UniProtKB/TrEMBL annotation:
GO molecular function: hydrolase activity
Domain of life: Bacteria
Chain intervals for the UniProt region annotation (Disordered): 1-30
A Pfam match: BD-FAE
Lineage: Bacteria, Bacillati, Actinomycetota, Actinomycetes, Streptosporangiales
Keywords: Hydrolase
Protein name per Swiss-Prot or TrEMBL: Alpha/beta hydrolase
Domain BD-FAE-like positions: 41-239
Amino acid sequence: MNDIQSGRRTGAAEPDDVLTRRSSSPDATVAYGELPDQVADVRFPRDGAGTAAPLVVIVHGGFWRTRYDRAHTGPMADDLAARGFATASVEYRRVGQDGGGWPGTFDDVARAVDAVPALADRVVPGGIGDVVLLGHSAGGHLALWAASRTRLPLSAPWRLPAPPPLRGVVALAPVAALELASRQGLSDGAADALLGGTAGDLPERTALADPLALLPSSVPSVLVHGTADENVPVEQSRRYARAARAAGDDCTLTELTGTGHFPVIDPLSRAWPAVLGALKALLGR
């Protein structure tokens, strides 16, 4: 069932100013590989309790392009840390740099999702508890994909024999249907740049990379998407949610009336409580 809410922003800031807003420095940076972009910034929970905290592993968006990096997840990571979460903002190789795109982006995200929770557990005071994977836009695509790797063929290098140990995935304005994104031409063909060609011309790659083709994931998911999103149309999430539920997955879609692409990662927006609600729902808090 869709939960329709208002997501209109208040305040004088522009809707995308969260991309450049200053945030605190991370408490630690951990490396899940040897390459410069195979790292994650960790922020500790600010409650000082010293007990295991839930960990939110954040996969940033930016249409998989090198122009965008994990820095813009700082404001949301700060807000979550203030609410008692530990966070780990993952970096990965992106289109436009050596090794980015197909298959390097997928190599990195799979490795990060598998390794970062244990790395964070070593540095967060009191350790970590349950883990939720959160991704925005292209990061939402990668988060849904990473949670669905049991559906990959045995020959795929990223395949898992069992679902990753996650309480769930929160996908914010995700590119949840990659083949559809290719046909829609989102962001001047960003999906095609990721795949190294059009989805229609590369059906084997698309079948390995499209979360919509990897259902059921067997991992609970909550999708949060604004109806006024001009970067990633809400139909992306609607199509994924319908297919996931039909396949037997626990999948909820929260639509935010009148909300665009960036308020869902902005703690100062009226969309942010819906994101917090999604995390609490998956964690049973």
